[in-house]
Automatic annotation (TrEMBL):
<dbReference type="Pfam" id="PF00248">
    <property type="entry name" value="Aldo_ket_red"/>
</dbReference>
<dbReference type="InterPro" id="IPR044479">
    <property type="entry name" value="LGALDH-like"/>
</dbReference>
<dbReference type="InterPro" id="IPR020471">
    <property type="entry name" value="AKR"/>
</dbReference>
<protein>
    <submittedName>
        <fullName>Aldo/keto reductase</fullName>
    </submittedName>
</protein>
<dbReference type="GO" id="GO:0010349">
    <property type="term" value="F:L-galactose dehydrogenase activity"/>
</dbReference>
<feature type="domain" description="NADP-dependent oxidoreductase">
    <location>
        <begin position="15"/>
        <end position="292"/>
    </location>
</feature>
<dbReference type="GO" id="GO:0005829">
    <property type="term" value="C:cytosol"/>
</dbReference>
<dbReference type="InterPro" id="IPR023210">
    <property type="entry name" value="NADP_OxRdtase_dom"/>
</dbReference>
<dbReference type="InterPro" id="IPR036812">
    <property type="entry name" value="NAD(P)_OxRdtase_dom_sf"/>
</dbReference>
Amino acid sequence: MNRAPLGRTGLEVSRLGFGAAPLGRLIGPARQRGIDAVHTAIELGITFFDVSPFYGQTIAETVLGQALRGVERSTYVLATKVGRYGPADFDFSAVRVTRSVHESLARLGAGHLDLVQCHDIEFGDLDQVIGETLPALRALQETGLVRAVGITGFPLPALAYVAERAPVDTIISYCQYTLQNRRLAAWRERFERLGTAVLNAAPLALGALTQQGAPPWHPAPQEVLQRCAEAAAVCRERGADLARVALQYAVSTGDFPVTIVGAADPDEVRRDVRWLTEPLDESLVQEVEACLEPVRDRGWVNGRPENQHPGERS
């Protein structure tokens, strides 16, 4: 597995990252499959693991911590988040995020966290994130409990608003660099000029760019989901898998140090790693792009209305 430096953090990460959100859905005996998925990822060279207390209301952190028990700490990069704890439970106060870091350390069985990120900042007060949340995380960084500090979210203007006012080491952007939506490409250099590493998450667009199609809760407009379904039909006719094309495409540019994909099963991990060793079918990419062209770069509103274009505030 190829690796790349994570911006200026001094950390090195595998090009494919393990998104631990699906571990939050594992209950009872199914948890062992999740643990096996983590072990398989490590065996195949994946070194970056991204989780949050929000995923499964701490279940994902607990399962990941169990899986990493006994694994040499220096061999992987561990990232978690603060600020979001439920579908509508957000708290970016200094007191809560400080407590959250200590809670995550305990669940993950870790002595330190390589990266702590403010989770889905568009649902909070961006000025609080700048003036209170990030300083609290920097204070933890001074103690050695945290190595790097970042932010995550969907609206790119919200991420830029914060990053341009308070230095952050990393940004995780999701669903913004895929076969259907490439808006992140126009923002990447802007972030990197700030010294911020940009991590690309959800290259399968939360399931929309798969043969199975989007889950019922998917926030994208119906026209976008319909076009993605048509792209899946094109792949089916060619004996191909839309998820494979989407993952290969997202990683192929090399523009991002790591691309994060969710997994909760060892077979999924093996499949994703194998796909990255196989050539990208450029002609199929062109056919899929033609299907998706009418909805190119279409997204959705996520978070508070005032956080969609915060730089335009009066």
